[in-house]
Design a protein that fits this description.
- GO terms for molecular function: chorismate mutase activity; transferase activity.
- The chain folds into 2 domains: about 10-255, Aldolase class I (TIM Barrel), CATH 3.20.20.70; about 270-355, Chorismate Mutase Domain, subunit A (Up-down Bundle), CATH 1.20.59.10.
- It is built from 13 helices and 10 strands.
- The chain has helices spanning about 30-40, 65-80, 90-100, 110, 115-125, 145-155, 185-190, 200-205, 210-220, 245-255, 265-305, 310-325, 330-355, and strands at about 10, 10-15, 20, 45-50, 80-85, 105, 135, 160-165, 195-200, 225-230.
- Helix 3 runs parallel beside helix 5 and helix 11 (about 265-305) packs across helix 13 (about 330-355).
- It binds phosphoenolpyruvate and manganese (II) ion (MN).
- The site of phosphoenolpyruvate (PEP) has 9 residues, from loops.
Length: about 350
């Protein structure tokens, strides 16, 4: 994907931070236009609204469909904002192109589906249009699948590509609706520095209260923009009402964000980074030692015909370490994910020995 071009609409490169806002769903013409008018007054330049809504279960509001595209055209005409929506199949793309949308995005359920991605890529190729497309991360934390979705579009002639980080699904109740797992978008940034990354704090947080801090975190990590759901009357929204904010609140949040340039790091930062480098080396050494002992245990288990996974032992290790970690001010979720990654690798090594 070496020929990816900067995100631009009508030949004008989008200035950073790229801010996209608008309702989760287009509901009525009045709601679409009222929200847009308020956003335009606050200086937002790119409008979003879902026209076809992928819902977890049937029976809910599934979007207004094609009539909503005409409302978006009205938004562009009346406010001058650029307009964008989510597409998930051939007919969505055809309709969005017919209504001359400025930008498309691919939702998280669609980027997880190679058949749907190929269908979208094919119809874009047939259209001969090089419209800017933003690809949300797939619902599952699979970087290769995310990159694969981008490659399908790129191979179809789409050169103005960006990504949206909207977090990853997990089972059960958590602070976040979709876990951010920041290292996945950061890894993508390292591999494809030319692809802009936009953060979607609305779908990561799932709650209004988390939007400001998630947005700041994203900017601090060098993200190129934000896509935030807003609605003229959020409490009455037909989808995702807990995470939508008014254009007024959006503007307060945006005004309070700190946009940091990347100046040469001060000496104190250099010193702190040296300490981190040193500690990382120590961590690596300790991990390597632990894995060697795990191999020895693997040999013992093989020689004594014992199964590799001993659930009681694993439970003990988890609970004692998590307790100790908590007393040292280390978060429980964080410790749990580190321990389970270490355990997974130990099991892999021990299974190898048994082969
Ligand atoms: C959306 O942007 O409204 C949406 C459906 O998002 P996601 O694909 O991230 O769930
Ligand atoms: Mn939504």
């Amino acid at each position: 994907m070496e020929n990816i071009q900067p995100l631009a609409i009508d030949g004008v490169e989008l200035s950073k931070p790229i801010i996209i806002s608008g309702p989760c769903s287009a509901e009525t013409e009045e709601q679409v236009l009222e929200t847009a008018t308020q956003l335009a007054r606050k200086g937002v330049k790119i409008y979003r609204a879902g026209i076809w809504k992928p819902r977890t279960k049937p029976g809910g509001f599934e979007g207004v469909g094609v009539p909503g595209l005409a409302w978006l055209n009205k938004v562009r005409k009346e406010t001058g904002m650029k307009i964008s929506t989510e597409v998930a199949n051939r007919s969505h793309v055809e309709a969005a192109l017919e209504y001359d949308l400025d930008l498309l995005w691919i939702g998280a359920r669609t980027s997880a589906n190679p058949f749907a991605m190929q269908e979208i890529a094919d119809v874009l190729r047939e259209s001969g249009r090089d419209i800017p497309v933003l690809v949300k991360n797939p619902v599952n934390p699979d970087l290769e699948l995310w990159i694969g979705a981008l490659e399908r579009l790129y191979n179809a002639g789409i050169t103005r590509l960006g990504v949206i980080h909207r977090g990853f699904s997990t089972y059960g109740e958590h602070i976040y609706r979709n876990h951010p797992q920041w290292r996945i978008p950061l890894e993508l940034r390292i591999r494809y520095p030319q692809i802009p990354i936009i953060c979607d704090p609305s779908h990561i947080g799932g709650k209004r209260e988390l939007i400001a801090s998630l947005s700041q975190q994203a900017l601090d990590m060098g993200f190129d923009g934000l896509i935030i759901e807003s609605h003229c009357n959020p409490d009455c929204a037909w989808s995702d009402k807990n995470q939508q904010i008014t254009p007024e609140v959006l503007s307060v949040i945006l005004d309070n964000l700190v946009y940091r340039d990347a100046p040469a790091p001060a000496e104190s930062l250099v010193q702190l980074r040296r300490q981190i480098d040193q500690l990382d080396n120590e961590l690596l050494e300790v991990l390597a030692k632990r894995m060697n002992i795990s191999r020895e245990i693997g040999t013992y288990k093989r020689d004594h015909n014992m199964p590799v996974v001993q659930p009681n032992r694993y439970g003990d290790v988890m609970s004692t370490r998590i307790l100790a970690a908590k007393s040292m001010g280390i978060g429980e979720e964080f410790m749990r994910s580190i321990l389970s990654a270490i355990h997974e690798e130990s099991v892999r090594l021990q299974v190898e020995i048994n082969k």
